[in-house]
Known about the structure:
Elements: E1 9-12, E2 27-30, H1 50-55, H2 80-97, H3 99-105, E3 109-114, E4 117-122, H4 125-146, E5 152-157, H5 169-179, H6 182-190
Parallel strand pairs: 1-2, 4-5
Antiparallel strand pairs: 3-4
Amino acid sequence: MKISEKTPVKKELPLTQPEKPSGREQVMVTAVQKTSKPLSKQGVSLGFSINSFLNKEETTVAEETVVIKNDNLPQNHFTDTDLQVEWNLMLKQLQRKDGFVFNAVKTFKLIKAEENKIKVLYPSDSAKAEFDKISGDFFNHFKRKVHNHIIEIEYQRDVENLKIEVMTKRKIFEKYIEKNPLLKDLDDLMKFDLT
């Protein structure tokens, strides 16, 4: 093979014996360095490792109990009317902002049980989960509004509210018959289709 003047020749030579190009040939010399250790650092984690997650020892975190002294906090009296007014305002705001949460919590009943206790009656656990998202904001606002920061909240499942009767046309008509018995005669005469 003939080497032309325009194409450079690439030769790999050992580092100990470099050759000098002779004449018109242009020789490119490249040296290859070899290392005995890898270039990347071993033991440095670059991300999530499943092995380290599985082998990680569980560390126990001591739970801290926060004690709030209620001696210096305001304890003003509030009425059930105050509670109902603020709850209705919250429902109106929720209806505009978040319809899903509104539909979940609109059947909740808030009742003043004792001087500093509010009883929350909820229909289901899923509705309570939605209420928990807004309860902190509502109760903090209410405590500031009535200047009573020692209010306790008690949750109770409302069993009566779970019975939601589906009213058919026939059942509605039967309730009207109880109020006005003449409707029964009219039904016999006209044979209404109430299916």
